[in-house]
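Justification of computing resources. Each target in the renewal requires a structure prediction run like the one illustrated here; the chain below, 228 residues long, is used simply to show the kind of job we budget for.
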Amino acid sequence: MDRRFIRSPARLARVIVGLIALAVCLPACQLAGFIAAGIQENTPVKVFAEYEGLEGKTFAVVIDADRAIQGRWPTLVPDLTARIDAEIAANTLASGHVPPSDVVMFQQTTPRWTIMSRAELASQLAGGEGAVDRIILIELFEFRLNEPGNRHLWDGVAAGTVAVLETDSAFPEEYAFNRPISVGFPDGSGYGPDEMSASLVATALVQRFAQRCAWLFFDHEEEYEIPF
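Resulting structure tokens:
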């Protein structure tokens, strides 16, 4: 430091006071930053619907899952169908929806539904009386609790795509909306059967996947950072 700068006692005092103030300010500023970050992380974020075409329309939630998945988890499709349907029906302005139990029964009694034209599928889902306006078609191509070959640690994944068919549009056979969805559980590593049961992991995956699918159709609040 330049000696001429500190030679004056008054100037030296001001320098010392400034340094002390700076030393006090820096931790305070950092603390304020930490507080602001903490508030932000705990403040829900408003997220708008990605698909808004359900207002005044009827819909049906249809889940197409691999046979291997259905064989391993026989209640998975009915459970997911009911959860997603209930969330969308309760939070949108759709004019009506096909009961999930009717959809699942139709799928079980009509194996050829996957090769139907969209128009025929929409009519069949409506019981032959008119047609459903929107088919929310969810393809579930992965549902597992751990990595193949490792049964000692949980590493659950549920993944698929969510698409919408607008059967009353000029292009009823084409997707009007299509999004990939993937969720996981647990949020950390190193958890095995001693820490949580297989049913707990499966239930958490179902809840998270259903929520992610339904959120696409209505405005909602999410945590600032969602772990899944």
